[in-house]
Amino acid sequence: MSNLLIKNVNVVDAFQNFHGDVYVENGRIKEIGQDLNKSNVEIIDGNNLTLMPSFIDTHAHFREPGFTQKEDIDSGSKAAVKGGYTGVCLMANTWPVCSNYEVLNAVRNRAKEVGLTDIHQCVSITENFKGSNIEHLNIFKDDKEVKAISDDGVGVMDSSIMMKAMEVARKNNWVVMSHAEDKTFSKIDMRMAEDLMTIRDLYLAKVTKAHLHMAHVSTVESINAIERAKEEGVKVTCEVTPHHLALDSSISNYRVNPPIREKEDVKTLIRAIRKGVVDCIGTDHAPHTEEDKKNGAPGMVGLETAFSICYTTLVKENNISLNKLSELMSRNSARILGMNKGLISVGKDGDMVLVDLNQRVTVDREKFVSRGKNTPFHGREYYGEVKMTIKGGNVVYKA
Ligand code: DOR
């Protein structure tokens, strides 16, 4: 781990805004101030740039093992750091599904080998996503590195199974990440599908006292239900995706699950961000091959475009502060995943991102380093470019 001094930079995190220098030693932030001088360290001039804590994604799919034609841990990690992310939570819908130590350790080892970003791999809630059995959770109970369980991509239909999983999760201090979709409604009404399951899971979390994290919240009814549950003291956090904030059905009908919603939903999500109901941004980075997209696979890539889309949509167009954006993209997601990141303060990991807020960027899917080129944002113009991503004091990406 190298020592690094970033000078003359606008520093912004969830709580502060100042111009100065930040020094990283042995992987952690050591000193913050003005006119810092160090010898024998790498120096970066941050003039005209903004230094933020690196971004942490609560929700991504790297497809390894099983679907590496769509993405793998190497290409996904490169996409992550290009987007300013040094922490990513991966969903378990790989093949085989992550329901055992063979898959979990394979992902962990590969992630460490690649070394660009810290990866948490979710364990599936039900064994092999079959929806019926949670016995496999017992083998992970003493593993301090397991943070979250999820059947994202499918969801858990059986309410008593979901309740039992929440009980196990509470005992082990795991987060239960809910993909809220009632499959009996998926072909009839995707709004009902999301809202029914959101309300069910909030109720189960109230009863079990588990930490529930609602993934990709997209409707008025769901975010309002989460707000009410928070007021009642239910231990629930939630994420929204960049695409559910930047698109509505009058702009795009790109296939993604949950679907792109209506203008009123988008307005309500943005209002919920202002009110503090939304905890974080999760990209739901979901790479697919062109052929799979043609055949109807839902989802889009998100890591490389998340910052500029969120900055433009929230900060430039909706007057939300950059501090708030940092809270959503770094501080809260780090807290949910139990990472020592997400703020620029002494003792935190030296994981930061240098951004040029005035730089205009046109999304070009051909320039993505992700294997997935599936995006509805191709050709759209935004503000804010990631110039450099730093992890533990090492530069892991440079534009
Ligand atoms: O659009 C989606 N794609 N939503 C999901 O929940 C799963 C994801 C995927 O794995 O492709």
From TrEMBL:
Zn(2+) 2 binds at residues 152, 179, 216. This is Dihydroorotase. Pathway: Pyrimidine metabolism; UMP biosynthesis via de novo pathway; (S)-dihydroorotate from bicarbonate: step 3/3. It comes from the Bacteria. Zn(2+) 1 binds at residues 59, 61, 152, 284. Binds 2 Zn(2+) ions per subunit. Its EC number is 3.5.2.3. InterPro entries: Amidohydro-rel (IPR006680), DHOase (IPR004722), DHOase/Allantoinase_Hydrolase (IPR050138), Dihydroorotase_CS (IPR002195), Metal-dep_hydrolase_composite (IPR011059), Metal_Hydrolase (IPR032466). Residues 50-396 form the Amidohydrolase-related domain. Its cofactor is Zn(2+). The gene is pyrC. It is an enzyme of class 3 (hydrolase). Catalyzes the reversible cyclization of carbamoyl aspartate to dihydroorotate. Gene3D superfamilies: Metal-dependent hydrolases. The active site is at residue 284. It catalyses: (S)-dihydroorotate + H2O = N-carbamoyl-L-aspartate + H(+). It comes from Clostridium hominis. Keywords: Hydrolase, Metal-binding, Pyrimidine biosynthesis, Zinc. Substrate binds at residues 61-63, 93, 257, 288, 298-299. Belongs to the metallo-dependent hydrolases superfamily. DHOase family. Class I DHOase subfamily.
